[in-house]
Amino acid sequence: MNLLSTLRAGCIGLGTAALLATFSPHALASSDSYSLRGDVTLDGKVDIKDAQAALQGILKVMPFSSQQTLSADVNGDGVVNIADVIAILRITTGVEPLVAEAPPATNDVVDDAEPLGKNRAKNYWEQRVDTNPVDPNSATLLTSIGLATSLHPDFGADYEGAPNGIPFMETNGDVPALPTTFSWDDESDNGAYPVPLTAPVEGGPNADGDRHVIVVDKAHHKLYEMYNAYPGSGGWSADAGAVWDTDTYAPRPAGWTSADAAGLPIYPGLVKYDEVASGVVKHAFRFTVKRSRKAYVYPATHYASSKTDPTLPPMGMRVRLKASVNITNYPKQAQPILKALKSYGMILADNGGNWFMSGAPDNRWDDDQLNTLKQIKGSDFEVVQMSEPVIGK
Predict the structure, then answer these.
(1) Angle in degrees, CA 302, 308, 314, rounded to 5
(2) pTM, whole model, 2 decimals?
(3) What whole-number percentage of the chain has pLDDT above 90?
(4) Which residues have a Cβ under 8 Å from the Cβ of 235 and sit 6 or more positions away?
(5) How far apart (Å, rounded) are the C-alpha atoms in residues 209 and 336?
(6) Three-state secondary-structure class, residue 383
(7) What is the pLDDT of residue 38?
(8) Which of 213, 290, 328, 341 could bridge to 226 as Cys pair (CB 3.0-4.6 Å)?
(9) Which of 227, 258, 261, 228 has its CA nearest to residue 243?
């Protein structure tokens, strides 16, 4: 039985002591990158005791403190699960899993309190692009957006007395599905949506803008998004709606829009306070430009323009912050965002303000810190090499 199978067996029936007894302790040097994450017992070293503590916490034999939860997320994917126990065992014993097989269907039971992302591979939002080649047309495309134009965090704690950003709501799968109708039903995922009539609307209940409504069903790993949405007496009406599997965010059919112009999901591309507060953000962000091309590239499936000028960016284009940009003097809330921009970048998702980066409102944001991001200019970015765009007809 390989390590991964052994661990799964341990989750089902074996005691943690028996499971871990065959591994020899080996503490890591303090300089190792795992010296902070992985120290579940908070004793200043990473050893087999940490693997045991992590497994006990997953099995709910012992509760995790908030600090332990952060330490136990060894692989930094936002989830504490068997993969983190494997990571601890790997670095303390040198044992590798022989086959990274998928979990049996009987193990795919979701606890209501479990974060998103159990037993899945990274999706395109979470793919690092810091070593990808630069697109040959990078300079031309960036010039069309604005080399001297500032990055604009389109989110924060407050804007003119209202929450600033695109809000979302999380549920545990206990919300009844309500009748939902769409004006663009030929490109929408039709059907009843488990979206409470009290779900927050972008811009507030009286807004006349995009009026996005976003609900994440954590229990079933589903994301429900609507554009120009209005609650009624017993359900919702909207222009467009899309339902996503949050494990994959598989692209929509070619030519289809979503609640976003590019046919992309909005939620995974938002800058979220809790992620930034953790110190590490591991996904790309959503951004907009004023003028785009009548074209799209993967992972987008839809264009949002009638312009055919090849110097304009297509929907789905990804940019990243240049590695040479010095970010050391930026404040605490800006640092994780800038690091993610270097590693994961931003994906063009809609027409709007140039270099407007989307995020979720939160009264814990420090708007002064976020505004330092405006020191970043268009010339600080580069376009990640793209496939040949699909041209609109």
Answers:
(1) 40
(2) 0.71
(3) 66
(4) 178, 179, 180, 181, 192, 197
(5) 29
(6) strand
(7) 79
(8) 213
(9) 258
